[in-house]
């Protein structure tokens, strides 16, 4: 069984220019994902899918393969993860042994840990699902979420939950944005990630941080350094 990690890393990030190779706590951002994938020993190959030669060079320096350059048609702001991974799976199938199990690891996931990747592979194999991906819980009940009106006032999305105690409301979860294990066939046929055909790999909230803005980046570095200091 051939198992492959695909790390998507296009060059056109706008909110944080060159985000995928920008230094994060002493290494290019993408290096953390590559190192975690290699250290997990889950994969026969660790491949970076990019449209950018500079990103490809950095990826190779840190131990990943870049056997192809991603087409421009799959490198814009509107292309989703599934088509990018499907392209990689198809290319690999056309140019060598076809992978059977494929894990998308995001390039901007410095908190990803090797044991989480291992748990994800185990969950996929034991469950018989199409996908297994990282999730974490919301810190506040989504049933009590507020909206700001055009007149500058406040209303509830679900007013019927106003009198219900927070601890009595159902827990809610969201995509942790770190990794997505999947069967090659599910990627190729475009099966949706968020469905009954997926199983969760639960992460603690303190190891989950979206990095989309400069403020996110600063917060992530603070949190990362704090976790490193605690581990010493």
From TrEMBL:
Q: Which UniProt keywords apply?
A: Nucleotidyltransferase, Transferase
Q: What is its EC number?
A: 2.7.7.81
Family annotation (InterPro entries) = CMP-NeuNAc_synthase, Cytidylyl_trans, Nucleotide-diphossugar_trans, PseF
Going by the record, the broad EC class of this enzyme is transferase
Which Gene3D superfamilies would you find in this protein's record? Spore Coat Polysaccharide Biosynthesis Protein SpsA, Chain A
Single annotated GO MF? nucleotidyltransferase activity
Transmembrane regions: none
Cite a single Pfam family from the UniProt record.
CTP_transf_3
Entry annotated with the keyword Ribosomal protein: no
Q: Which residues form a coiled coil?
A: none
Q: What is this protein called?
A: Pseudaminic acid cytidylyltransferase
């Amino acid at each position: 069984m051939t198992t492959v990690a695909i790390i998507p890393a296009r060059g056109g990030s706008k909110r944080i220019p060159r985000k995928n190779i920008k230094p994060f706590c002493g290494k290019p951002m993408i290096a953390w994902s590559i190192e975690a994938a290699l250290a997990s020993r889950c994969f026969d190959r660790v491949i970076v899918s990019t449209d950018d030669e500079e990103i490809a060079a950095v990826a190779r320096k840190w131990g990943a393969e870049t056997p192809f350059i991603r087409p421009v048609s799959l490198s814009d702001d509107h292309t989703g993860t599934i088509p990018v991974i499907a392209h990689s799976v198809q290319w690999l199938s056309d140019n060598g042994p076809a992978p059977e199990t494929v894990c998308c690891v995001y390039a901007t996931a410095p908190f990803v840990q090797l044991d989480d990747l291992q748990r994800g592979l185990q969950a996929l194999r034991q469950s018989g699902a199409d996908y297994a991906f990282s999730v974490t819980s919301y810190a506040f009940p989504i049933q009590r979420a507020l909206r700001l009106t055009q007149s500058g006032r406040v209303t509830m999305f679900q007013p019927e939950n106003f009198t219900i105690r927070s601890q009595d409301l159902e827990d809610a979860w969201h995509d942790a944005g770190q990794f997505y294990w999947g069967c090659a066939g599910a990627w190729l046929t475009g099966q949706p990630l968020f469905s009954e055909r997926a199983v969760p790999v639960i992460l603690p909230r303190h190891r989950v941080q979206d990095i989309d803005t400069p403020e996110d980046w600063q917060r992530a570095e603070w949190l990362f350094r704090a976790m490193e200091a605690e581990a010493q």
